[in-house]
TrEMBL record:
<keyword id="KW-0472">Membrane</keyword>
<dbReference type="InterPro" id="IPR013120">
    <property type="entry name" value="FAR_NAD-bd"/>
</dbReference>
<feature type="domain" description="Thioester reductase (TE)">
    <location>
        <begin position="16"/>
        <end position="278"/>
    </location>
</feature>
<keyword id="KW-0812">Transmembrane</keyword>
<keyword id="KW-0560">Oxidoreductase</keyword>
<dbReference type="GO" id="GO:0016020">
    <property type="term" value="C:membrane"/>
</dbReference>
<dbReference type="InterPro" id="IPR026055">
    <property type="entry name" value="FAR"/>
</dbReference>
<comment type="similarity">
    <text>Belongs to the fatty acyl-CoA reductase family.</text>
</comment>
<comment type="function">
    <text>Catalyzes the reduction of fatty acyl-CoA to fatty alcohols.</text>
</comment>
<dbReference type="Pfam" id="PF07993">
    <property type="entry name" value="NAD_binding_4"/>
</dbReference>
<keyword id="KW-1133">Transmembrane helix</keyword>
<keyword id="KW-0444">Lipid biosynthesis</keyword>
<dbReference type="GO" id="GO:0035336">
    <property type="term" value="P:long-chain fatty-acyl-CoA metabolic process"/>
</dbReference>
<protein>
    <recommendedName>
        <fullName>Fatty acyl-CoA reductase</fullName>
        <ecNumber>1.2.1.84</ecNumber>
    </recommendedName>
</protein>
<dbReference type="InterPro" id="IPR036291">
    <property type="entry name" value="NAD(P)-bd_dom_sf"/>
</dbReference>
<dbReference type="GO" id="GO:0102965">
    <property type="term" value="F:alcohol-forming long-chain fatty acyl-CoA reductase activity"/>
</dbReference>
<dbReference type="GO" id="GO:0080019">
    <property type="term" value="F:alcohol-forming very long-chain fatty acyl-CoA reductase activity"/>
</dbReference>
Length: 415
């Protein structure tokens, strides 16, 4: 089907949003190391007094780029920093940057989003919905655009028992939701079936993309929970405590002592390097589909990228691996020896949290106060419990995923 991945990206200009995030970082590293691209423009926003360019310099000094730095020492010459922000009108681009994007970009990977599960609906709408709409509007006037891939999530329609590679109706449209927010009306009941604002706004954004079906060569990519790297650029790389690591990390350091989780529950985790390769493959498929087939005027394709369809894993195995790893290579600093009580009873877990989190935390904080230090353990415990509650539905979703309909590059894991 058409040309290879290498030929698709050769001398191409790529634009990546979310390049400083977990998936975006691995995607950027992979494209620079394995594809002979001309330029990769990355959206970076100024933060904490640091200009976008300085943030980028600091980011590219991280260890995750060591292999790339060794194999291609001049890789930074192919990176163009675009100062912008999804929260701002017109994405906060300068006139020069906007004109450059319009005249040069061939491929757009839209990875940026607010993934905070406790984000307000107003902010989640501004970033995940309005930010995407602004980028889509810009893409419609890009002179040399060959493909646009929007990164959603496999849990965008998690209230459903089955999630296929297709669009699903939602009770409210993105346009209607924005009107309600603008009028400051009560919107608490909307999205009540979704566990958080992240998955809800992602569902609305997917349907929003349908309105661009005849204007853009576009696809939607739905990965499940993204875990650490399997092999590239190095095994086991991780830079966050979202998803499954939001449970494993506090468990290892002794913060997490109990959680509402049944160990026989199935979960769905995909390695971030495999996910980046699959994302590149989806772009290849999108470009070839619109260039070499008669599907140009059909609705955008959706690609579910999940593991449970072929290689299901249960929490019992993950927890056993975690305990084995702890004893083989224990952390240098912990608050407590690794121990955790798992239960799917909400009330039992409430009681255990009080006994195993709150009371010990209060004693430790009291000792901090006596020694003139800032108490912080109870705050950490509260935040950890809140995160577990927000993660619970996604990490133990009973939805059945299908990922066999839409074709991506064969042997994509080695692309």
């Amino acid at each position: 089907m058409g040309i290879s991945i290498a030929e698709t990206f050769r001398d191409g200009v790529v634009f990546i949003t979310g390049s400083t995030g977990f998936l975006g970082t691995i995607l950027l590293e992979k494209l620079l190391r394995s594809c002979d691209v001309k330029t990769i423009a990355v959206l970076v926003r100024s933060k904490k007094g640091l200009a976008a360019s300085q943030r980028a310099v600091d980011i590219y000094q991280r260890a995750v780029f060591d292999r790339l730095r060794f194999e291609k020492p001049d890789f930074v010459t192919k990176i163009k920093i675009i100062d912008g922000n999804l929260e701002e009108p017109s994405l906060g681009f300068s006139t020069d940057d906007r004109d450059w994007l319009i005249n040069n970009v061939n491929f757009v990977f839209h990875c940026a989003a607010t993934i905070r599960f406790n984000e307000s609906i107003q902010m989640a709408t501004k970033i995940n919905i309005q930010g995407t709409e602004n980028l889509l509007e810009l893409a419609t006037i890009m002179n040399n655009l060959k493909g646009f891939v929007h990164v959603s999530t496999a849990y965008s329609h998690c209230p459903r028992s089955e999630i296929k590679e297709q669009f699903y109706p939602v009770s409210i449209s993105a346009k209607e939701l924005k009107k309600l927010i603008k009028r400051d009306e009560n919107i608490q009941n909307f999205g009540a079936d979704w566990p958080n604002t992240y998955t809800f706004t992602k569902a609305l954004t997917e349907n929003d993309i349908l309105t661009y079906e005849n204007q853009l060569p576009i696809s939607i990519f739905r990965p499940s929970i993204i875990g650490c790297t399997q092999s590239e650029p190095e095994p086991g790389w991780l830079d966050n405590i979202n998803g499954a690591s939001g449970i494993i990390t506090p468990l290892i350091v002794g913060i997490l002592r109990t959680i509402q989780l049944s160990r026989n529950k199935k979960t769905d985790i995909v390695p971030v390097d495999y996910t980046a390769n699959a994302l590149i493959s989806v772009m290849w498929s999108t470009v070839n589909r619109y260039k070499y087939s008669d599907e140009k005027n059909k609705e955008p394709k959706i690609y579910n990228y999940v593991s449970s369809a072929d290689s299901p894993i249960h929490w019992d195995k993950i927890i056993n691996y975690t305990f084995e790893a702890y004893h083989q290579a224990p952390p240098l600093e912990t608050m407590w020896y690794i121990f955790c009580i798992f239960s799917d009873s909400r009330w039992l877990v409430y009681i255990l949290r009080f006994l195993l989190h709150r009371i010990p935390g209060a004693f430790i904080d009291f000792s901090f106060i006596i020694r003139g230090k800032n108490p912080k353990v109870l705050t950490i415990a509260f935040k950890s419990d809140l995160l577990q509650a927000k993660l619970f539905k996604s990490l133990t979703s009973s939805s059945v995923f299908y990922n066999i309909k839409n074709y991506i590059y064969p042997d994509y894991q080695k692309c």
